[in-house]
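During the second half of the funding period, the structural biology subgroup turned its attention to how the target accommodates small molecules. The most pressing case was fe (ii) ion, which had performed well in the primary screen but for which no bound structure existed. We therefore specified the complex as follows and requested a full 3D prediction, including the ligand pose.
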Amino acid sequence: MSRTDCSGNSPICRGCICEFNRLEEARFWARIMQEHALFIKLGLPCDEPDFKEEAQDLIEEFKELRERLDRASRLCGDLLDDLIDAVKDIIKFKAKLLRLLLECKAEPGSNYPLLLDHIRREAMHFLELLKSPVPEDPLTMLLQQEVFWLRQMKEHIEFVIHLLDPSERELIEDAEDFLKIFSRLLETARDLESMDETRPRHFNTVVRFTQTVINNTIALRDFKAAAFELAKLCELLSIVSTPLLLDHIRREADKFLDELEVLLPEVRRCNSTLKCD
Ligand SMILES: [Fe+2]
Ligand SMILES: [Fe+2]
């Protein structure tokens, strides 16, 4: 493909579809939602049986939805409506618990307020995908995803640091190095997203930045995967309620990488003067 064909004005880019498979998205996020409900339940203090029951109901609701999603070939009709209702329910539940913690009206157990906000944000992101699946232009979409996911990745590192036993000094130090890197990447992503409001015809820096994001996210994904293996083998000292939490945050890193893999070539083709793939 020639350089001119890569211009953002070419018909191929005007009709550019950074199409995500909605059913696959829903399967991914429904599992995440089910696990969030489990993490909340495990983190609740033992004198909160009503909240534990509410969390259990959500676990079962998403379990059933996941079975329906596995059997479905399209995401529409009752399945979509039920999924939207369930996501709204879990958003309300997370927000209610967080609000009670902020008002000092409930014991936190081991649910950090930031963790509740983090998983509330993920649920809202999922709801947004279910309600408005049509993507905007690839550059805007890439920057939106980077700002969203880099914040989540940064917070994963913060949770890991606070859940590891203080004697796990080397792992904590590795995590602190990641925290510095991801805090900086998030700040840059926010800057670039703001600059993109001027609608540049090409923005090559985003391509270079995204490559850096990919390389660092691969390293972070590997760190999370290694921590999960250690926890499974009972070789890790921490107050993580279940090793599944480490696998959960590893899967979210892989999801971010999958999205970057789809979006980066589109941005390179439509929003940069760089060589096409
Ligand atoms: Fe999550
Ligand atoms: Fe997360």
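Two results from this model are relevant to the next phase. The chain is about 75% helix and 0% strand. The longest helix spans residues 204-232.
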